[in-house]
Amino acid sequence: MRRKHFLISFALTVAVAIVAAVHIDLRAQATSGPQIPIKAPQPTQTALDEYSWQSFIALNWPAALDNDGRPQRDDAFPNGKPDGSKTLNSPGPRVWEGLKADHELYRHGGKAPAAWNQYDNDLPCSAGSIDEKSGEKILTLLSEGTSMQQGINQAMAGPLIDRNGNYVHYEVRHNKPYYDFVKDNKFYLRSELNKHRWPKKMISLPISDSVSTYGSLEVKGAWRLLDPSEDEATANRYYWTWARVPDPVTGKCGPKQRVALVGMHVIQKVKGFNSWLWATFEHVDNVPCNYANPGHCPPAPSHYSFNDKGNTALDAIAKGNRGYAPVNWSTGGLTMQKWRPLDPKRPDPNNPATPLPPEPIAVADRIHAIRMLPVRQSADNANDRFHKMAPVAGTWMENYILIDTQWPVLGNGTVKPPRLDVNPNITEYDNGALGPEPGPTHEPDPVANITMETYYQRTNTRLSYLGDSCMQCHYSAAQTDFSWTLTNRAWPPTLATKPH
Fold this sequence. Notes:
This protein is of the alpha+beta class. It has two domains: 2-302 and 371-495, no CATH class; 312-369, no CATH class. Helix content is 20%, strand content 16%. It is built from eleven helices and 13 strands. Strands 1, 2, 3, 4, 5, 6, 7, 12 and 13 form a nine-stranded mixed sheet that branches. A hairpin with a 2-residue loop joins β9 and β10 (351-355). α1 packs parallel to α2. The protein is globular, with a radius of gyration of 21 Å.
């Protein structure tokens, strides 16, 4: 009932004001471009979904560029610097692509990170002849010593393979408050991080003051390769860019390829929400979107990226297996119950002496995914509103949907990290993470992004404490303020402490 009191008390007064505020936040800054609103949103689902959309637009605005064609890193713009002279549909790198990549903060050998306004000269793959100042995106491959934050494998799982047989690639970026806090406290070193090892006081990343100072922000993007067979009409349904994609066998930066954004997490530490705000977006062509209102989500014009359209047999298998199935689910003699996505570093199960071949992956090992639950009506409403208004209407951003915003109803409370010698239970999570919404005691629907939590749309019974939502998984990293990146990437990663 506690959530209902919050939701009902604000709903009527906030709903009208929000729509007007959207235009103010996105258009008032004509010279510098839109910014993430610094004022904390009201604690209602409607207000928070609007806030998530405003943040998504601001982060995906064209970036102001430096002389090397890269997004400018300006100390006055802790969340990245937009170019106010451009429209949302203008080509070029986005604001969030100028935030600090995880490999710039957690450097090989534990080297000190560079200043916020500088670019690192350490590339995350064997570069060969590539010019670091080329301005091209360089996607990471695998981080050493940990299976958590990797360029290909999902958290607690293997990779996602699209309908063309290519790996989905991931990148994680942080804003200036997060980056400077970790850099200045030397938490990129395991020895310093472990000084806050449970049961000592948890690390608290910077939080906004809702007046002049932004809090910590982390963005995770999921990219798929645009196949040469796909036409320009398909490509232009996405935000796409050029990237160097590492070869999964050699580790070398591959040739320049077009990659399309298929998913994005945006998490922010905002005043009044001590266990963060969690927003997640996807492209509508990932899988059939299963909307509360089907009319708001027409089918993909050609193919889905991770679903064999019309294959009801695979849909049925996926429905019984937490939302996914490979095209040939008995590959290598593995049964459906035991099947797990292939690890790029693991030898071929049929020939252990031979490493896996480079991309693309064989047809039999591709992923067929479905959305297990409809997108909630609250997110559906927000998507419908933003798709119809400037600056989104008529642009590629019309094809992205908010899956949900998860937030702490008891947001001003004190986070209580779990003990690390036992797995946290539902009650500990609900109380320690300050009453997640949606959460276990009200609206207990999972919050899963098809591109990043493909295999956790229902609780994995072998890792049940991770649950099936953003906040529950990250609650196991609450000792480092819900940041798995910090927990797992500090140097040396080979000594990363296991959560349980």
